[in-house]
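Section 5.1 Outputs to date
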Amino acid sequence: MSTTYLWNPPAPASLPVRGTDARLPINRLFFVGRNYHAHAIEMGRPVDKATAHLFYFTKSPGTLVESGACVAYPPGTQDFQHEMELVVALGAPGFGVAVEDAAKLIYGYACGLDMTRRDLQLAAREQGRPWDLGKDVEQSSVVSEIVPAAGQVLSQGALEMRVNGATRQRSDIARLIWNVAEIIADLSRFYHLQPGDLIFTGTPEGVGPVVAGDRIEGSIENVGSIALTIGAAE
């Protein structure tokens, strides 16, 4: 028996996959916080891996937009900032996965931008409140095409991001505090990971504000490139 909805449900979120006409359906968006030492320091929260633990936040799949889009400057903020990241796309389920088995869950990789209402995020952080207004922002999860790399754990690769041609972020994924396999294994302790889950692995130093009219361009070695234009506020 067919189901009758009160209105049409939204189309599933998906991303293009390099080398194929098929699209990767998106399940959930996970984000790792403070996973590069220099960024943790610039955010005023240094990380000691010996005593610290990975932490995460999530965004709605509805925040997803493809590379090349133009997104409106969001409401409620005076400090909209960029964060360039390596994104891991999962292609197999896993729960309680060992680090040495984490590669089995990997489908591929992409470049990502975690766009953030920084003023709202920091205000919430200082008050001990959730980050949702700062992070779960409409059209704030920007992702490039997925590059298939089944079972491969990327351990190095230059990362760079520019605003209007001027370099803002430059690092290497070799500088991740927790690497890709460690992130997948740890996250699988708390969630039954599924195909289509995306993991944004953290951003390096150099995050900063953008304004209407700015053009963001970035790349990760052996992964690809990403672009975003900031439109006028609605």
